[in-house]
Amino acid sequence: MAMIRIAIDCMGGDFGLPVTIPAALAFSDRHPGAELLLVGLADQIEARLAQAKASPAQRERLRIVPATEVVTMDDKVEVALRRKKDSSMRIAAELVRDGQADACVSAGNTGAWMAISRYVLKTLDGIDRPAIAKAIPNQSGGMTVILDLGANVDCTAEHLLQFAIMGSALVSSVGHRERPSVGLLNIGEEAIKGNDVVKQAAELLRRSALNFHGNVEGNDIFKGTVDVVVCDGFVGNIVLKSSEGLAKMLGVFIKEEFKRNLFTLLMGAIATPVLNRFRQRVDPRRYNGAALLGLRGVVIKSHGSADTYAFEWALQDAYDAVESGLLGRTAQTIAQITSVPAGGTEHEAGLEPSSHGDIA
Amino acid sequence: MAMIRIAIDCMGGDFGLPVTIPAALAFSDRHPGAELLLVGLADQIEARLAQAKASPAQRERLRIVPATEVVTMDDKVEVALRRKKDSSMRIAAELVRDGQADACVSAGNTGAWMAISRYVLKTLDGIDRPAIAKAIPNQSGGMTVILDLGANVDCTAEHLLQFAIMGSALVSSVGHRERPSVGLLNIGEEAIKGNDVVKQAAELLRRSALNFHGNVEGNDIFKGTVDVVVCDGFVGNIVLKSSEGLAKMLGVFIKEEFKRNLFTLLMGAIATPVLNRFRQRVDPRRYNGAALLGLRGVVIKSHGSADTYAFEWALQDAYDAVESGLLGRTAQTIAQITSVPAGGTEHEAGLEPSSHGDIA
After folding, report:
1. CATH number where A28 lies
2. B79 lies in which domain range?
3. pLDDT digits (tens, 9 = 90+) for B147-162
4. Per-residue pLDDT tens over the stretch B250-279
5. pLDDT per position as a tens digit, A261-309
6. Cα–Cα–Cα angle for B79, B80, B83, nearest 5°?
7. Which residues of chain B neighbour A221 with C-beta distances below 8 Å?
8. Number of structural domains, chain B?
9. Taking each helix axis from N to C terminus, what angle separates A262-282 and A233-258, rounded to the nearest 10 degrees?
10. Is there a single domain that holds both residue A21 and residue A104?
């Protein structure tokens, strides 16, 4: 297989270079088939590489691509997009557009990364809006992909159908699962539940060639009822963040119980190996890396607060997406859905933005 | 203080009498100031009381109120409301309406309980739609009240304001907290984030006499950033159910880690007292009982799958709401908000349904 080339916005995130460079070096060591394009302020990257004592062998698969500007975590989208045309974020996306990289990764400002990657790379045919997707662990030992996680606040039924297509493509390529099942996030399993957009999306999904399971409820995300859970970005973002908050709270509660007195501290010390295994298993850093789907290129967003270990997982996501042929699979899934389904017309397949103009 | 009289729909929930009667007896024993009205099929209730060997002393504060029909968990709302006019659910609500009970509790079908209690009791002046609220534990050791949890799928900004009023009244009465802080659930703290309804609700809340904190994100629910989190019923229901699912999954994961081998089993046995304390602390049964707010009476919904212990907590919720004067406090809070705020008019205070007719 050819080298997999990943462009990294080395300046992005809460920490920037102190996280991205060590993560890049560690990732590179573990992946001889990867070439990393380190995008950012060249002298600072050089200094970090020197500080990290990168060996000549390591350097062989690293390339510095200079960028003179940096998008900050507080930059407004307009500023990032219109006024910082030589930002590390922008250059990273342009490397993918120009075929010099297969994927790009940033831990920077989500809104800016979304806008820039969309502006530079454009959406795939048949996709109106990109969506943010993430795989989270479920109770059945697998992973559930959920999208959209915040790129689109107001969605039409067609958008939700498109998210289902993109999520299915992600699971069938990266997750190596044929015909992934898709659930529509709702407040009840019955078809009559939910708002108008969700009801119409269910109808589109039912008529599509996707493996539509039907409505799912909040608890199904973690039960592993389906491979892909589809919702609008408002709901998805709130579900994701509330889950992060709950997991954190439960972690604090466990710690507090073991810290209650000398006796419980002792029990905690004894149980440490097991508790550590549990912590590792649910460590959110392991699930770092969300995919910006629907673009003409693999784009990964790392959590802004990612440390080196977490950022490596975001690089891994980029690598896996390229290796498993995510883009090709997405285009293929779109083609399947837009082709005439049993008893339907192309119009009915729901990829025509005008087909349901009555949806707000 | 006068007796607190609670009407119990003894037939509701996944289990009905085998749960509600023992719970009622246990609750009654712990609360000499409570009188319980046991509503349902009289002979069956009698049989259960005999089976539970209810003493004459216990019987003194229990009264059977016969109802000849039962709303099932699968009954459609229309059937429950229009065709079962002598259901235990309906009679329980009517006892409150007629002043024979101070509160009513059911573990039955949520949609039916909502519709029946609303039909029988009507909404308070200034409240268009009742909402479902629940207090859940947060990281700062307190409780966060979140509403709506599913009564209202599509909400206007005015509805969200009304939820904020009801939630504030709940916290200030039951939670004994003056001027509870209110957060509006959104996908970012910045005022520009979110959909139109949320943005307009923020504006209404900012101008109201409530203690509005501003936008909050999903993780703030469990952080305890504010006392009351307001959202529409679609989002609230999904957040609640996904949190239940996540908590369950983490419980399964911990168990799995301790069951890995003999060594970890031993560690688990040693740590049992601490793990049990943790489990008790996060036991969802302790947080059973959601309040149907905005009605002219205290109405509590227990989880359908509640066991005896959980159902007792729902009865406790009813008792606390009456004892703390929830209804009076709600009316008082509504009056405060509808009175002209600084620089505003009654119209601007946002309780006129027509004031923002442009919201879908």
Report:
1. 3.40.718.10
2. 1-121
3. 999 888 889 999 999 9
4. 888 888 888 888 888 888 888 888 888 888
5. 888 888 888 888 888 888 888 888 888 999 999 999 999 999 999 999 9
6. 55
7. 242, 245-246
8. 1
9. 150
10. yes
